[in-house]
Design brief:
By secondary structure, this protein is an alpha/beta fold. The protein has helices spanning 12-24, 41-48, 50-53, 63-66, 80-86, 101-106, 108-132, 167-186, 208-217, 245-258, 283-294, 305-308, 321-326, 334-347; strands spanning 3-7, 28-33, 67-71, 91-94, 137-143, 190-195, 197-199, 222-228, 234-237, 239-244, 271-275, 280-282, 300-304. It starts with a strand and ends in a 7-residue tail after the last helix. The structure holds nicotinamide-adenine-dinucleotide. Nicotinamide-adenine-dinucleotide binds at residues 8, 10-14, 33-34, 37-39, 73-75, 95-99, 114, 118, 141, 143, 172, 195, 197-198, 204.
Length: 354
């Protein structure tokens, strides 16, 4: 049976990835997380309890037998004991990271050090593993933010130069550079996916969708970031592409199942894939959609993004043509998955607590 090591499994995207793999494959998943950064064991527990809410998932009662949860802070090397607990794996998904831009601006040093150290730990482990018991594919999860802002009408294709604007995106760009160097130097089967903004249930409350939702639910004013002229009038409002975490998980599964992860020497370039959202939505429109799905009124004010969020970019954009040409189609549409996320979160308000 296929076995996968999933780092960052207690995080927002990680636990959706776990759920998607459990529902759509027979893979066994080794979940590794520090549970000291933003990871929560409750996310994994709720996935494993899912059959209680979803009686249709008849196999779900056995899910816990396909899942192993290991607690380890990846800043420290993987010991021989932990290595034997991980056991044989076919695939590695490198998803653990500190992930919040604002926090990276408040305390850049531990943030960047964490993201660099954890990827080095994982690559050193991969290098050792590859000598005798070869994981076939190592897929690292990165972000559109490494490319910096995209001009209106322009979408980045895979492999363009990085121009990160804040310590978070710089730390992700560092991770990518280190991965590329290990691909080039040590001939490991590594690849990188870059993804746009992800939405879904149990997201950390400091991220945009839960933040807007808790504000509209409490009748508070929502700040919308825009560039404004000297009279405070909006010149342009920030925009993002969004996709549900299940689409992201499905893209990872597609890549692992269908794509070769060439080693240096087999092919001149490392595998890189953009995983894109369905369509571009400006932040005001997104906030309005969240308020509408919540059945609440949206009160908002425009805030100049230069002064209120230094290091933030008004627009990120990736070109998704490569994945489309390879034959990947996202399983869930955006509006429907946003509506489901909003309704689910209102029914489970404990996930809005800090
Ligand atoms: N959420 C998004 O919109 C988005 C978009 C593009 C890319 N990404 C990338 O996807 C990944 C997951 O993002 P997320 O939103 O789920 O973030 P998250 O913060 O919810 O999850 C990250 C997980 O990594 C774990 N982690 C951090 N440092 C660790 C360490 N030293 N050792 C072990 N575990 C550690 C955390 O505990 C947490 O569980 C990140 O790599 C992020 O850069 C996220």
């Amino acid at each position: 049976v296929t076995r996968v090591l999933l780092t960052g499994a207690g995080g927002f995207v990680g636990h959706h990835t776990l759920e998607h793999f459990l529902t759509t494959t027979d893979w066994e998943i080794v979940c590794l997380d520090s549970f000291r950064h933003r990871g929560k064991t409750d996310r994994i527990r709720e996935v494993l309890d899912a059959h209680i809410d979803n009686p249709d998932w008849i196999d779900a009662e056995d899910w816990s037998q396909r899942v192993r949860v290991l607690t380890h802070d990846l800043r420290a090397p993987i010991s021989p004991q932990l290595d034997s607990e991980i056991g044989y794996v076919n695939y590695v998904i490198s998803m653990a990271s500190e992930s919040h831009v604002d926090r990276s601006c408040v305390e850049p040093r531990p943030f960047v050090e964490n993201n660099v150290a954890l990827v080095l730990t994982l690559l050193e482990w991969m290098r050792e593993r590859f000598r005798f018991d070869k994981p076939q594919k190592f897929l690292h999860v990165s972000t559109d933010e490494v490319y910096g802002p995209a001009q209106v009408g322009f979408n980045h294709v895979e492999g363009e130069p990085h121009r990160p604007s804040n310590p978070y995106s710089a730390s992700k760009a560092c991770q990518e550079s280190i991965i590329y160097s290990y691909w080039r130097t040590f001939g490991l089967p590594l690849g990188i996916s870059n993804t746009m903004n992800i939405i879904g249930e149990r997201q950390d409350p400091e991220k945009f969708v839960p933040l807007v939702l808790s504000r509209v639910a409490r009748g508070e004013t929502v700040k919308i970031h825009a560039s404004v002229d000297e009279h405070g009038r909006p010149v342009s409002i920030g925009s993002r592409y969004y996709l549900h975490a299940r689409n992201q998980a499905d893209a990872l599964k597609f890549l692992l199942e269908t794509q070769p992860f060439p080693r240096y020497g087999d092919r001149a370039s490392m595998g890189r894939w953009n995983v894109v959202g369905e369509r571009e939505i400006d932040n005001l429109r997104m906030a309005q959609m969240i308020a509408d799905f919540a059945g609440s009124k949206l009160d908002y004010e425009l805030a100049d993004f230069h002064s209120s969020r230094p290091g933030h970019d008004l627009r990120y954009a990736l070109d998704g043509g490569k994945m489309t040409r390879l034959g990947w189609t996202p399983p869930v549409p955006l509006a429907e998955s946003l509506e489901r996320t909003v309704r689910w979160t209102l029914d489970h308000p404990n996930w809005l607590l800090p």
